[in-house]
Write a structure and sequence with these properties.
10 helices; globular
Amino acid sequence: MVTTTRSKFITNSKVSIIGVPFNGGQPQEGVEKGPLMLVESGLAEQLQELGWVTEYVANDNINDLRPESDPVTMNLIQPKFVSAVTQHVAAQIYERACRGDFVLTLGGDHSVALATVSGVFGAYPDACLIWVDAHADINTPEATTSGNIHGCPLSFLTGLSTGHPDFQWVKPLLDHNKLVYIGLRDLDNFEKKTIRNLGIKAYTMHHVDRWGIGEIVEMALNHVNPNRDLPIHLSFDVDALDPSVAPSTGTPVRGGLTFREGHYICEAVAETGLLVAADIMEVNPALADKHEVLQTVQVGCSLARCCLGETLL
């Protein structure tokens, strides 16, 4: 099947698949294996069948960026390593977005969003961000109780956190009104207060239950892209899905999106013709049995295909 959906901002038929085999933003081993498993499951070939030309950047030497010393700084764990990796990947994403490629980033933990949002918004300053996740990932260094940076990227990207010495390269490119959440259901008190105080639009699973996913996506788009004329970046953490759908992930939370709800988000955003970049994050092949790993990897691949234009008919 050949896709009929192309973003009006994408100037060629090329998808740059950026693998980020990185686990430094959280404590569990295995998430660094997610990108390669997605690719080895045939993702590039599947996208080629949709009519795309693909380039794969494996980043398999990413551990070379690990510093000799990386002490906890301002409550954050491995800040120098996370910073070095995400700054490196941000440059790769920026280069490919500027030349008109669709950028598909495969994580890796969600601290990698420091790279994806920085790279995409560097190329598309007026873009908006749809963040699909069970978690808000907007803790500050002062507020985080775990010190894990995968729970903090949006605080840096929105300018809520500016004082950490290892993340001075991160620019506050993301306005609060250009961010919308879908699928939230596990938030710290600080995150709840921050979202309310800043007026960030957030649709929790309560809202999905009340209005249905079709209405939620429409309202999300109306908020961040009311005239349907801005580039869209979709960042999808697979833990937004219910664990029965995507069990092989590091921080599963029951009561999540169904298989179809998750895919509908990707399909509907792709149908706008405005999607320029997508992230598939937090697939962890080490945290489940072989069947559940395969199930989660297959879901990750199918979400990516929907972002690139695959439809049911």
